[in-house]
Amino acid sequence: MKSFVVSALVLCVLVTKAESASNAVAWCYHLPSCNFSTWSSIAAPFCNGTRQSPIDIVTANATFNANLTAFTFQNYNSTSALTKIENTGKTIKVGIASGVTVSGGGLSESYDSLQFHLHWGNGTAVPGSEHTVDGKQFPMELHIVNSKSSLNGNTTLAVGDPEGLAALGFLIEALPSNVTESPEAWKNLTSYLQNITQKGQSVTITDPISLDSLLDGVSLTNYYRYNGSLTTPACNEAVVWTVFNDTIKISEDLINRFSTIVRINGSSSPLMVNVFRGVQSPLPVQRSSSPARISCSLSLAALSLALWTS
Ligand SMILES: *[C@@H]1O[C@H](CO)[C@@H](O)[C@H](O)[C@H]1NC(C)=O
Ligand SMILES: *[C@@H]1O[C@H](CO)[C@@H](O)[C@H](O)[C@H]1NC(C)=O
Ligand SMILES: *[C@@H]1O[C@H](CO)[C@@H](O)[C@H](O)[C@H]1NC(C)=O
Ligand SMILES: *[C@@H]1O[C@H](CO)[C@@H](O)[C@H](O)[C@H]1NC(C)=O
Ligand SMILES: *[C@@H]1O[C@H](CO)[C@@H](O)[C@H](O)[C@H]1NC(C)=O
Ligand SMILES: *[C@@H]1O[C@H](CO)[C@@H](O)[C@H](O)[C@H]1NC(C)=O
Ligand SMILES: *[C@@H]1O[C@H](CO)[C@@H](O)[C@H](O)[C@H]1NC(C)=O
Ligand SMILES: *[C@@H]1O[C@H](CO)[C@@H](O)[C@H](O)[C@H]1NC(C)=O
Ligand SMILES: *[C@@H]1O[C@H](CO)[C@@H](O)[C@H](O)[C@H]1NC(C)=O
Ligand SMILES: *[C@@H]1O[C@H](CO)[C@@H](O)[C@H](O)[C@H]1NC(C)=O
Ligand SMILES: *[C@@H]1O[C@H](CO)[C@@H](O)[C@H](O)[C@H]1NC(C)=O
Ligand SMILES: *[C@@H]1O[C@H](CO)[C@@H](O)[C@H](O)[C@H]1NC(C)=O
Ligand SMILES: [Zn+2]
């Protein structure tokens, strides 16, 4: 118990430290002087690098890699894994308790899930995902940030390791417009936004929201993989990216909450909108399963079923 508390404290200190280090360069999303088109000059040497994220995923160019097997998610079904939700002034970030991990999926070792946060545009009308697929940008994107377990939460080491971080990216799409306040996990999560309208505010999550419930409906075996970077300064090239093929589907009213409730600073500052980096130069992308093989084995299964039942 004691060592748990100590390591939790150390983790908090480290995360805070890493954030103030990246806040050293005054970057932003909304001003011409510091928006993402300036980052390669104001936040060199990494934001001007050669494996920068996000990218457009050209599905026809993704090569099949049989090593990209299923992930093992530990405690993603826990209803007490989400700690607090915070307005950082740049995003909405949710802390994840220790003991939540991800492994498999072609990753070289186990990674600890530290936090997730979101990127969005301006409601359902203006898309704000970071990754795009065949040129299509989605309304929102969820990023689960994981750090190599062997680095024990030392974020300095993680951002200096070409595979120090593993990010899981989920594209978010709107449900038909006659559906509201759905799904329940996202209704619960977004209900906290009214309590963190200003930068620096945070509240403890008390609803029993599991990570699995937020990812409901997504096939976790069907994904794209590439080597990239953090999508905010300092843009360290330390991230193994996984972007899932399926989207999370959320009702429009909940998507619209993000762009209408939280602000980038105090109560009279602008609403937090268009919080994403635009796509960077193309990088080689692999995929976990060949659609051709899926449909082939499906039709084989259908055929054998037909023969068997006849
Ligand atoms: C960023 O600022 C530049 C001017 O520096 C402007 O041309 C561009 O449209 C802005 N981009 C975004 C996404 O706001
Ligand atoms: C990025 O900027 C740094 C510092 O200005 C420079 O040393 C480096 O060569 C640049 N990298 C690329 C890929 O242009
Ligand atoms: C995709 O592949 C085509 C043909 O091989 C190539 O011309 C194109 O540049 C590739 N696009 C990307 C984004 O990698
Ligand atoms: C798959 O993993 C094996 C064993 O680690 C390795 O030799 C092989 O190169 C990998 N294949 C691909 C396509 O990365
Ligand atoms: C989570 O899944 C594990 C493994 O399948 C299972 O043992 C555990 O009981 C589940 N926990 C909850 C809270 O559902
Ligand atoms: C966002 O959309 C609203 C209307 O839905 C509009 O009033 C506002 O100006 C937009 N904000 C930006 C920064 O484009
Ligand atoms: C992280 O690791 C580096 C290199 O081993 C070390 O210098 C630094 O003190 C570590 N940071 C913390 C807070 O443990
Ligand atoms: C929404 O509309 C679709 C078709 O227009 C209908 O099938 C569905 O039942 C409606 N859903 C709700 C929640 O009203
Ligand atoms: C949403 O919150 C309510 C109230 O705390 C709880 O009963 C319910 O289980 C939660 N559902 C999900 C999916 O988070
Ligand atoms: C969040 O705000 C609502 C309404 O403004 C309030 O009733 C509720 O107690 C607050 N919750 C927390 C956790 O601060
Ligand atoms: C990522 O980098 C590693 C190490 O260089 C390499 O083995 C792997 O094939 C790369 N993955 C992709 C998807 O390019
Ligand atoms: C990937 O997602 C697209 C769009 O959501 C869907 O149409 C397609 O069936 C999915 N591909 C596979 C192999 O599941
Ligand atoms: Zn992100």
UniProtKB/TrEMBL annotation:
Keyword annotations of the record: Glycoprotein, Lyase, Metal-binding, Signal, Zinc
Enzyme Commission designation: 4.2.1.1
Class of the enzyme per the UniProt entry, highest EC level: lyase
GO MF annotation, one: carbonate dehydratase activity
Cofactors, names only: Zn(2+)
DNA repair listed as a keyword: no
PROSITE patterns: ALPHA_CA_1 (PS00162), ALPHA_CA_2 (PS51144)
Domain of life: Eukaryota
Entry annotated with the keyword Aminoacyl-tRNA synthetase: no
Signal peptide: 1-20
Alpha-carbonic anhydrase domain location: 25-292
SMART domains assigned: Carb_anhydrase
Reaction equation(s) it catalyzes: hydrogencarbonate + H(+) = CO2 + H2O
Pfam families linked: Carb_anhydrase
Any one Gene Ontology cellular component term annotated for this protein: plasma membrane
Role this protein plays: Reversible hydration of carbon dioxide.
UniProt similarity note: Belongs to the alpha-carbonic anhydrase family.
Name of this chain's protein: Carbonic anhydrase
